[in-house]
Amino acid sequence: MTWFDVLVFLHVAMAVAWVGGALTLIVLGHRIGSTAPEQMASFGHNIDWVAKRVFIPASLTAVVTGVLMVIDSDFYGFGDDWIVIGLVLYGITFFAGLLVLSPESARIGKLTQEGSPEAPARTMRLIFLARLDLTLLFLIIYVMTVKPQFGGEELWIGIVGALVAGGLFFWRYRAALARMASMVPPSAPPAEATES
Questions:
Q1: What's the rounded Cα separation, in Å, for the pair 133 and 185?
Q2: 63 Cβ partners below 8 Å, 6+ apart?
Q3: Which residues have C-beta within 8 Å of that of residue 124, sequence separation ≥ 6?
Q4: In the Cβ-directed half-sphere of 80, how many Cα atoms lie within 13 Å?
Q5: Which of 5, 7, 77, 95 is most buried, judging by how many CB atoms fall within 10 Å of its CB?
Q6: Each residue of 125-183: pLDDT tens digit?
Q7: Cα gap 32→26, rounded to integer Å
Q8: pTM here?
Q9: Per-residue CA distances from 17 to 22, 60, 71, 186 (Å)
C-alpha cells in the first residue's frame, strides 16, 4: 500500500461521510417536518451539532487529502480543469454550510422552541437551500469521477443536470410555501368592521 492509496481511501471515505450524511439529514428533516413539526427545534439543534462535528471535519479532510493526492501524483495537476472546477464548487458548498446552513438551522431550532410563526417558512427555505447544497455535492462527485474539461460536453451535461435538479427543488419549495399559506386560517376582520 502506498501513501497515495491511503490518501485515496481517506478522500473517498470522508466524501462518503459528508455527502451521505447530508442526504440522510435532508430526508430525515423532510420526514420530521411532515410528521412531527414539534420535533423540528431539536432537529435544528442536532443539524448544527452534526455540521460542526462531522460535516466540517469530513469536508476539510476530503479537500486536504485531495490536494495532497494532486501534490503526490505525477499525472494530476492544479491546472487540470476538473480540479479547478471541483475546488471552486467545494469552496461554494463549504462556505454555504459554514456561513448559512449551520447557523440558520440553529436559529430555526430556537425559533421553533419559542413557537415563532416564522419558523415553518424558514424551515422550508432551509430545506430548499440544503437541497441546493446537496446538488452541488453531487455535482462535485460528478466532476471528480467524469473529470470534465472547460467547454467540454461532459461539463455541460453536469451543469444542466444540476440546474434541472435545482429547478425541481425550487418548484417543490414554492409548492410547500403555497400549501403552508393555504393552511393558515384567514384572520378575523377588524373590530370596527364587525361593529358597523
A1: 33
A2: 87, 90, 94
A3: 173, 176, 177, 180
A4: 18
A5: 7
A6: 888 888 999 999 999 999 999 999 998 999 999 999 999 999 999 998 888 778 777 76
A7: 10
A8: 0.81
A9: 8, 12, 24, 45
